[in-house]
Write a structure and sequence with these properties.
Helix content is about 15%, strand content about 45%. The chain is mainly β. The chain has a single domain, classed as Roll (Pnp Oxidase, Chain A). The strands form 3 sheets. The chain has a 7-stranded antiparallel sheet. It has a 3-stranded antiparallel sheet with strand order 1-11-12, with no helix packed on it. Strands 7-8 form a two-stranded antiparallel ribbon. Strand 4 (about 40-45) and strand 5 (about 50-55) form a beta hairpin. The radius of gyration is 15 Å and the shape is globular.
């Protein structure tokens, strides 16, 4: 018998993860972005990453129909950016500093990493979709990552 949703959530809460905002532009040119902790590398050759997006999220369709997306890995000083993109807003980019990347996805200024990706695969992952992208461009800056652990933001200490 599988574990309960509460047990599963509690168990996964013990896994520390980085915090990302993933962004894209839909077919009509509207920009979309959401906070995502389900991100990881897949392959070095070719350079592949994956993101997982809940199917009920209002921006889900944009990631499904777009040929591109960006993964913006947030720095420890960007809690407000993470919270902003985790909250439903009509215009997710209102008050957010960004620029448009070479592939056309919005890039969050100040993120410690911006990865621009071409969508390679869209897979069914239960109540989420798994989007695999090939990294076409990467920009990184010095800084420490924003972490998420046991339901709260954390800072890395050395």
């Amino acid at each position: 018998m599988p574990i309960s949703n509460d047990e599963f959530r509690a168990a996964l809460g013990l896994f520390a993860s980085g915090v990302t905002v993933v962004t894209t532009t839909d077919a009509a040119g509207k920009m979309h972005g959401i906070t995502v902790s389900a991100f990881c590398s897949v392959s070095l050759d070719p350079p592949l990453v994956l993101i997982c997006i809940e199917k009920t999220t209002t921006s889900h369709y944009a990631f499904e129909e777009s040929a591109i997306f960006a993964v913006n890995i947030l720095g420890e000083d960007q809690v407000a950016v993470s919270q902003h993109f985790a909250t439903p807003y009509l215009d997710k980019f209102d008050g957010i500093e960004y620029e448009i990347g070479v592939l056309g996805a919005p890039l969050i200024i100040g993120a410690i990493v911006n990865l621009e990706c071409r969508l390679r695969h869209s897979l069914n992952g239960g109540d989420h979709s798994i989007f695999v992208g090939e990294v076409a461009d990467a920009v990184f800056r010095p800084g420490r990552p924003l972490l998420y652990f046991q339901g709260d933001y954390r800072k890395m200490t050395l």
